[in-house]
Design brief:
three-stranded mixed β-sheet; 75% helix; Rhopdopsin 7-helix transmembrane proteins; mainly alpha; two-stranded antiparallel sheet
Length: 314
Amino acid sequence: MKQGNQSVVKEFTLIGFSRFPGLQVPLFMVFSVTYLAILAGNIIIVVTIRRDSSLHIPMYFFLATLSVSETCYTLTIIPNMLVNLLREKATISFIGCVLQMYTFFGFACINCVILTVMGYDRYVCICKPLHYQVLMNQRLCSKLVVFSIIVGFIISAIISYSVFTLPYCGPNKINHFLCDIAPLLQLACARNYVGEILIFLFCILVIVFSFLLILLSYILILKTILKIPTAEGKRKAFSTCASHLIVVVVHFGCASIIYLRPQSRYTLDEDTLISVTYTLLTPLLNPVVYSLRNKDVQVALKKSLRRGTCAWKM
């Protein structure tokens, strides 16, 4: 299709793994197993929280929401990535690329906001325990989840609009296995400096501002924990935050490396490796960490397994 004297790109070629043709089948097998583990882990977390009344508190309500968001987040990327690993030429239509970026960033932003809300929940629980049930009531928790969804998809819409309103009229090979910001900006025939600044500012808003709010929550939490007179009390208070802290460090660490570095430092091999970590290991980390480190979830899982075993025997 022509626009003036320039061809308009109708599809993109994803070359993220094409440089390693001998590894594509092994990678397909490894990624498939990892994806099944992500789905199983997050579904188990959601079902366990829903079925066990002792977990019907804000902390686990937000954890279940995060698990659902992580599942949807991987659904926008990994199935297409697995199919492309088995294809001779990995392509995605222009519209498909738009939809992938929009949904991918939408759920990624939701994850950031939910993790921030979880940090606030831990702050209220530890620093204001007497007011916890009043402050973190069911209505507020539902509003916070709805707020995170609205904010996530509004920011994603602005970022996607800023990227895809640029003219794409020449090369169509994306140096990635998904439609991401940096490789698409490299393909554009013109630069929109206002749009690029806007994208960078929204990345700062989502990543840096969210992380700073979480950091503030934990500074206040640490001050409260240090005032607890007994070592056992300090250990119990900190153990309620440890799982969340691990997920936050990995999630925001990978996101910062990908989206807050200068575009001039973009390299295919490095970015592919980091993005695989961000899209595969981070969603897997959530159920694994909470299953291994959280005693309440462990007890609920054991109860569910016992119920399942009894039902099977009957």
